Amino acid sequence: MAFPIEKFQDIRTPFYYYDTALLDNTLNAIKAELRPDYHMHYAVKACTNPTVLKHIADAGFGCDCVSGGEIQACLDAGFKAEDIVFAGVGKSDWEIELGLDAGIGFFNVESIPELEVINEMAGQKGKTARVSFRINPNVGAHTHANITTGLAENKFGIAMEDMEKVIRLAQDMPNVEFVGLHFHIGSQLLVMDDFVQLCQRINELQAQLDKAGISIPNINVGGGLGIDYQDPDGNPIPNFKAYFDTYANGIQLREGQHLHFELGRAVVGQCGSLITKVLYIKQGSVKKFAIVDAGFTDLIRPALYDAYHCIQNISSPDAPNDTYDVVGPICESSDVFIKDYTMPQTRRGELLAIRSAGAYGEIMASQYNCRQLPKGYCDL
Length: 380
Ligand code: LLP
What we know:
- By secondary structure, this protein is α/β, with parallel strands linked by helices.
- The chain has two domains: 5-13 and 270-378, Lyase, Ornithine Decarboxylase, Chain A, domain 1; 20-268, Alanine racemase (TIM Barrel), CATH 3.20.20.
- 29% of the residues lie in helices and 23% in strands.
- It contains eleven helices and 17 strands.
- It has helices at 5-8, 20-33, 50-58, 68-77, 93-102, 112-124, 163-172, 193-211, 240-250, 265-268, 301-305; strands at residues 15-18, 38-43, 62-65, 84-86, 106-109, 129-136, 158-159, 176-182, 218-220, 258-261, 272-283, 288-292, 311-313, 321-327, 336-344, 351-354, 375-378.
- The strands form two sheets. Strands 1, 11, 12, 13, 14, 15, 16 and 17 form an eight-stranded mixed beta sheet that branches. Strands 2-3-4-5-6-8-9-10 form an eight-stranded parallel β-barrel.
- Helix 6 links the parallel strand 5 (106-109) and strand 6.
- The protein is elongated.
- The chain binds ligand LLP.
């Protein structure tokens, strides 16, 4: 990726930089694969930078929110209320109220008590809430344990054996309308096998519901498609064709049924980088450290998930190589971006780009150590 480095000189580091041309190319690549009965709801949790959101809204996508704050951010960015879906195991009353007042598309409901509350609150407002049930498919995504969500042991969704019961319950309630089923198995999946398993599970569940005379207008298969963290320039745009083909071949859709997707990382992951300045090069007794001004407060993925993000020396790309542990300034030994990393030699004052940080980067930043939140810039 080419960075407008001369424009970076006056910006306080660390900051996020989003390449909106790549974002738009990614959005177009998705659009090219969407069939008429497919709908994309961008998983807003990956990145809520307002400009990024606006590009996604302008592309005509809907959005998948998990909090009242996200619903508000999406309304502000120009998403239509009916294109918003609202998921999450613990929706607060004010968040349900916001969803009802705005007239969002669907509530993805994760328990019977939540269904009862939504029915009651919709009734008080004289409204009907469209509800879809998140079913836990007990399909394991082979990825990091912290980002696996579709196993029976996870807190998400309603158990498959309760599916028919909750649908009947909703059908008997006056203020909710049952509109579909929702699934999500995990994140950063690069092989299609787990999605194939999900398709098989959905086919089984549909067959069961057919027998019970229950039809499902919408099936939402969640997100989860991964990105190439090893080679962001080689693979800036994920293989959307393989992903959508997996579902096209795997799910037996019924006449008039719609298929919904909630990709997050695959949409925004590669377009964002964390730009950080080298503060000091320190020669330790066994290692050489590049101490930078970004820390895990700015990008927590390496510390939290052992995640790999490649780092590019954008000030001296042609310098001879050297090997470093690239570490941040935070007072915790887990504040390490990468160990034993070989890259063009760097020195104090140079800029590094920590790549593939568009998803779950800026939005997961914190203020630990009284640090400032990083800002996000697009189109400098
Ligand atoms: N739908 C639901 C219900 C989800 O829980 C998620 C992500 C998505 C869609 C979007 O998944 P994606 O397409 O981005 O994989 N912070 C972690 C990732 C957590 C994902 C949580 N759920 C990370 O940095 O890897």
